[in-house]
Design goal:
It is an enzyme of class 2 (transferase). By secondary structure, the chain is an alpha/beta fold. The chain has two domains: 101 residues, Nucleotidyltransferase, domain 5, CATH 3.30.420; 161 residues, 2-Layer Sandwich (Nucleotidyltransferase, domain 5). 36% of the residues lie in helices and 21% in strands. Strand 10 and strand 11 form a beta hairpin. Helix 3 packs across helix 9 and helix 7 crosses helix 8. The chain is globular, with a radius of gyration of 20 Å.
Length: 315
């Protein structure tokens, strides 16, 4: 990578499989982008992060992270960590700032997706909106009055834990994270098609043919997403919801969610008519959502003077 006198920001998107990292300027233009395999323990994770940051040090003024789990954005501490349980109760912010004497921020990956859309995507100019990310579970972030909603315990937008059943005791299969799981849907559809492995590409090719084996499953899955959207709508009265995650790249998914949403309203016997219809769109940012959202979170903290200015020059 060519070194210049200009300084940028280093954004890292930590996932269960890969850690993506990018050099980005304050306008959101990606200078360079790469990824490495996510380590399976904390010691190797810290060594990997250290090597990444060191490789960019001559050109960066701050570091920002997007990460799974409940994130205390003030202390930079990760709780639970999603698939990366070794990050539980670890402060990435403290580690980076102690190791490199450079400012660091961190935010939840679902909230990062919402921030990316708020900054330069489908929620730009939207006062009240949300992002729902469909993957192993259901993540997301809510924007209220133009600002990301963190919640008292940094848990706002943890859609996976939304209850979808009145059964007692509550079964994991009956929460939004399971019923709205894109991974689960693809696995079940692949099984119905008798595929040797789970294959989303083949599943959607068959859906485009209206394959009767999996069409009912697809419709049920999309209806589950509309129930999630309607439940959110009753509480925060959003104008727009953007659907993210790898599966959102399939136009057929967005079309079917919209269709199921219309059907649900039409057959609700006036109940949902009391709620203003919400706009449902695909996210603008997908693979780069975490990187962009993490940076916007950093820039907001700079603007609100929550970070030390002695090492950061934004102009």
């Amino acid at each position: 990578m060519e070194r210049t006198h200009e300084k940028y920001y280093l954004s890292l998107d930590v996932g269960g499989t890969f850690i993506k990292h990018a050099l980005i300027d304050k306008s959101g233009h990606i200078i360079c982008l790469a990824k490495v395999t996510t380590p399976i323990n904390l010691a190797d994770f810290l060594e990997t992060i250290k090597q990444i940051v060191q490789s960019y040090l001559p050109t960066i003024r701050a570091v920002c992270f997007s990460c799974p789990g409940k994130i205390d954005t003030k202390s930079g501490t990760v709780y639970f960590g999603g698939a990366l349980l070794y990050l539980d109760k670890f402060s990435i912010k403290t580690y980076i700032e102690t190791e490199f004497s450079i400012p660091c921020t961190i935010t939840n990956d679902g909230k990062a997706a919402a921030l990316a859309e708020l900054w330069r995507g489908q929620l730009e100019g939207i006062a009240n909106g949300g992002v729902i990310t469909l993957g192993t579970g259901v993540g997301g972030g809510l924007v209220i009055n133009g600002n990301l909603l963190e919640g008292t315990n940094f848990q706002a937008g943890e859609i996976s834990y939304m209850l979808m059943s009145r059964d007692s005791p509550i079964a994991l299969s009956e929460i939004a994270g399971s019923m709205g799981s894109a991974v689960r849907f693809i696995e079940e559809a692949s099984n119905l098609l008798q595929l040797p492995t789970s294959n989303g590409v083949i599943v959607f090719k068959e859906l485009q043919k209206n394959n009767a084996l999996i069409q009912p499953l697809f419709e049920e899955y999309c209806r589950n997403i509309t129930i999630i959207i309607s439940n959110i709508q009753t509480v925060v009265d959003l104008e727009r919801v953007a659907i993210g995650g790898g599966i959102s790249e399939q136009p057929l998914l967005i079309e079917e969610i919209r269709r199921q949403y219309r059907l649900m309203r039409e057959t609700s016997k006036g109940i949902l008519e009391m709620l203003h219809p919400i706009s449902i769109v695909a996210c603008e940012f997908r693979n780069e959502a975490g990187l962009m959202g993490a940076l916007y979170h950093l820039l907001i903290q700079i603007e609100e003077k929550q970070l030390d200015y002695w090492t950061i020059i934004v102009d």
